[in-house]
Amino acid sequence: DNAPSFKEIELEERMSEMTAPGSRFPLPDAHDPDSGRNSLQSYDLSGDEHFSLAVQADPGGDQRPELVLAKALDREEAAFHELVLRASDGGGPALTVLDANDNAPVFSQAEYTVRVPEDVPVGSVLVTVTANDADEGLNGHVKYSFKKMTEKASKIFHLDFETGAITLLGSLDFEEGDSYVLEVQARDGGRLFDTAKVTITVTDINDNTPEISLREISEDAPSGTVVALLHVQDRDSGKNGEVRCSLDGDVPFRLQSSHGSYYSVVTARELDREQVSEYNVTVRAADGGSPALQSSAVLALRIRINVTDANDNPPVFSKSLYEARVAENLLAGSLVLRVVATDEDVGSNGRVFY
Fold first, then answer.
1. H or E stretch at 165
2. What is this structure's pTM?
3. Topology of 211-302 in CATH?
4. Which intervals of the chain form a coiled coil (predicted)?
């Protein structure tokens, strides 16, 4: 009622391809608690012509199996050889314990789906895949690996080949990738395998501030003239990416919503460079995150708008009447009088010619 059993279900032996034929290697003994003919009686080896079995009997009658190299090895021809050692007793019917690799690994799920926020810390376990193999020993030992993987994903995800845990190797960024599909393979020691799909969906967090990119004007621009075009964008999604803009303070400008993420800054009234030559306008761009990120979701950008000069001022003499007395013998070329006129405009508009 007992079958012979080995203490170890599998044995790995490494040997050089230069090993001489006839070389012997001890094999593990089997044990059978039955007695007489019902106890262990014989060993049998199958699997490869390169090896044979020799059984030595010690003085006590116990049998010791040995592996004999019957044919020279060639690693280029075969890098490994799989052999099966059977131990049988003499009972009727004879009992033999042998596990065949007749079961492939099977994943607990055909597809694994997980959602993770983009700010999940590096090193976190995102999901653990599990496959079971009904075989024993090497035939039932499952190891995991990625089957197909992009170069980008290989820098972000790591798979533990023993546990099946997928951990985060690099930072996630929703704006750079919002979904990853990975193929994981479970393989046993007998080269049977199963494949599962892992879908990792990255969810967005409010981690991007609105970006405002920016122009210049003339003081004679009529009311409603576009003086600057703002492109406002937030790389977040949903309400986290919805941006509202406003201008601070009492300034002669107003905002007009344009197409999509564009805003126009237009003049609200006439400008006079001679009164105010420069404006500091604060544009506030806030997204719709809840709660809003106080330090980064609200961006105050100071835009310096230089008002260019229009030729709207004539030259003005310092006096309306100049008088001078000169002697009749004054030499030609002598200075008689200097007149001065000024122009409030700047540049070429303010240069005065007499």
1. strand 165-168
2. 0.43
3. Immunoglobulin-like (2.60.40)
4. none
